[in-house]
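dumping these here so i dont lose them again. two proteins, back to back, each one seq then structure tokens. dont judge the mess
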Amino acid sequence: MEYGSRPAYSAESPFKIHGGCGLMGICDESGSLMSGELAIRAMAAQHDRGNGLGGGFAGYGIYPEFPDHFCFHMMYHDAQGKEAAEAVFDQYFVVDLAEPLPTRPVKGIVDAPLLWRYFLTLSESRLESMGMTPEDYIVHVVMFINTTVDGAFVASSGKNMGAFKGVGFPEEIGHYFLVEEYEGHTWVGHNRFPTNTPGWWGGAHPFTLIDWSIVHNGEISSYGINSRYLDAFGYKCTLGTDTEVVAYLFDLLLRCHKLPLELACKVLASPLWSEIDRMPEDEQAVMQSLRAVYGPAMLNGPFAIVLGFNGGMVALNDRIKLRPLAAARQGSILMVASEESAIREVLTSPDEAWAPKAGEPVIARVKGLDWPIHGDLYPPSGDESCAAADVKDSRETVEVS
């Protein structure tokens, strides 16, 4: 195929619209599956936090019939982009199923790209010859498609999960993709009000890489240094929004560098130097080391984020809490959102509700699923809930090698 034989595709709307966004995350730590309708309702309650230029969801546990396949959700500008991307899939994978993503006509959703999904397996011999883990292999392919295949964009690429996103309000996007017909143990959602980046299908949240998905309210003013830092590790930022760096930073810190989740959060939302100076000596040394090693990975600017993954989720504010984030728990369900009203739309009788502190993660861990994090500073014990609720843990700190 001749590349460069047509004008390169570029995103529309090269103007700035200033405002705010809304987000949510819900996880049943028991592993029970919840309808995507809950996520749609939570985002509909935050309708006025967006302007119709982006909405989306990611669900985990939604493809139980293909638990060991990597599932690529793809967006294509045209048939030529689709043909080029499928040539890549045929070269790199065994394609067990390729089909259009199920959608329905919804008023307000227009100019949709071609939307397809692929259930893929990897050749062990090819992995061995390339000297890669399956996850490294997937990252390599995602970066290759997003940077070299014009008019093709990877919306998600993990196992037993998928992202559904586009231009529209989140409740419109949810119904367009029939999200209410999927069931998952964890859901994240987003309502977009673009600030410095265009409103287009590939730029809607969540942003994903393998199993990680990120939704974000705020602005990453450190995008330039973050993206240059990531480039040194082979991550290419191509989707025209600052949020993309957060998904890649979590992959780098958690999967590649094997940091415990709590320390990865301290890298991204680092305490102020004045706070570090007041810490106990041992903790102070750890925080100083993180700042020295991972300075270019620190996120500056106002943000609230939710990271979803197979195994749970984590919600995190910036270090001085410049964006809203509320949390609540009802039984085995932990939920976070930009507004408490969205939580109470879904959790009718929460056992507790609180506002997470600046820079302190709220963590949910699904019972019975592998924990895809290298180590825990504070591992859960017994039947105790694994959700962190901004309280000091009395358990002994675990040394992580």
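---- next one ----
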Amino acid sequence: MRLRLIILSLFMAFALGDNFCYAMTPAQKRAKAKEIQMRKREAAKRKAAKKKAAKAKAAKRKRIKDGKPLLYVYTYNKQTGDILPASHVIVQDIHAYPNKRPKVSKDTDSKRARISRGLPFGTYWAVAAKTGWFHSDTVVFKHQEDEDTIRLFLYPETRLTFTVTDSLTSRPVSANIIVRHPEGHKIMQTTSDSIHTLLAVLLDDRVPYYTIEATSPDYYPFNDTISDYSSYPGVIMSPKEIKSFVLHKIYFATGKTHILATSEPALQELYQFLQIRPNQRIRIVGHTDNIGSDRSNQVLSEGRCTAVKQQMVERGIAPERIEVDGRGERDPIVPNDSEEHRQMNRRVEIVLL
């Protein structure tokens, strides 16, 4: 009898584990409960994942059965490789006739920069576009697996700004400008003027070079290649024959012959012109508007011409190379009927002798 009790006690000890030998503390009970809870959660996760995989597999079979296997299209920045959201994507069957409605025409989402669409297996082309970007290359691909992935890369626009100037005076030149692609078609055609000559054109970094042409009646034709978009010097045109030009941005004190400090760039321009043509003689001709008497305007124009000549002499130009002629208000280029026109008539003209 005693032996039986001993055997039964040992059996219960093995069956119940440590709890038979001693009672668990509250902390041990909480740890045990937590462990059981974690095991239940892991089991639930495994069950959910298995259910999700089965559901995805069933959905995949249904898509293929219905003839709509899934296609993903992603858009990226070609230079950085970053995703590029809100790009418009077009996907079309390669055998579709022209102007047929595309299979896909929608914007990528703002989070993953992608679109998803169920399309039948086949051969397609895809392209992406976005404002401020050159469109992607057209990609031709075979859609032959469910969840096929296509990546499209867009190129940021490069804005090239340049000026059109005279090679001798650095003054703006009015000219007809044409920028061409290497294949010969025009990228831009515009006309610069003699006041605002800062022009801009959008160029594609994928193209190795562009050609630029400029024509103007008084200048030799200009033709150049643009390959370095970051440091293009601009269009510099050589004049056929110069007879005279207006010295722009020369400023005097109101009603006086004193030249203001803001005129320094114009004075330097005239000095450089005389420097590169050491045998050139000039006549400085001064003009005024019609405000004031004829006599006062005549004296004022003569004094201003003399002031410009003095500036050149002080910089090292021989005085015998420079003549002065004050014309007063006698030769307006526009009627003196507004302040803007009167400002145009107040000018200093350089005549080549």
